[in-house]
Amino acid sequence: MKRLNILPFAVLVFSLSGLAFADYESEIRDLKLQKEKLNSEIQNLNTRIASTDSMLRADASHRQLLEQRYKADVERRNLEIDSLNAKIRKVAASLQQERNKQARAKNKSDNVAAKRRALRGELAKICKQLEVQIAQTLPWERDKRLDRAKSLTREIESGNVTEEEAFSRMKSLVNEEIKFGDEVSVVNSPLTRKNGEIVNATILRIGNQWMVYVDENGASYGRLERKLENDKIVYEWNEELNLEERAAVKLAIDVKQAKKPPQIVKLPVSLSVVGGVR
At 16, is the pLDDT very low, low, confident or very high (cuts 50, 70, 90)? Predict the structure, then answer.
């Protein structure tokens, strides 16, 4: 009976054991599945980690390459900047030299302009002095000579003529006045006597010192005398000549016109005519 009682118990135990084993196997299978799943996840994680490591290594290599390129680019740009700075310094030095040259040229030009202005002022001053001298000379085409001098003075003062041209023209005027002072001339021309009468006369001029005349009839004679009236030099005819003076005037005119042979003639020249009144 006891064996029979034990048998059901054993069967029950075995049944329960079978159930327990079945649960264990199921749990083991679940655990294996979980293990496989975990292994798969671990493998995936390892793969992702390996991929990430590879990416990190690639990034590190790329970063290192970029750093190398950056350093090389920085060095290249620094060299370019240094080269540009050197060029800028060279250009700045050339520019400064050019500015210095321009400044020196401007100073030279200003000096030349100042000298030309001073020269123009001196030329105008000399020309005005020439006007005064011409105005005090014998009235022999004096208005024309004076107009030429005044015209040159106006052009010099207005700047319408260069200093070189002004000097050349002034030299020509001075040469004309020198020639006027040296030459002996004789002309036949109408002449207004001291009393206002107009006669045809032969006029003899010796330099810029004096003039004499004789009319076409040989009746009127005169010599031009210089006087000072109201601080101005004026000329008037002295027609009260004696016989000797008249003869000398007539002889001098005939010698100049080759009507008489060349000879020395004593002319009636007074100090007032030669030196003038001071």
Answer: low
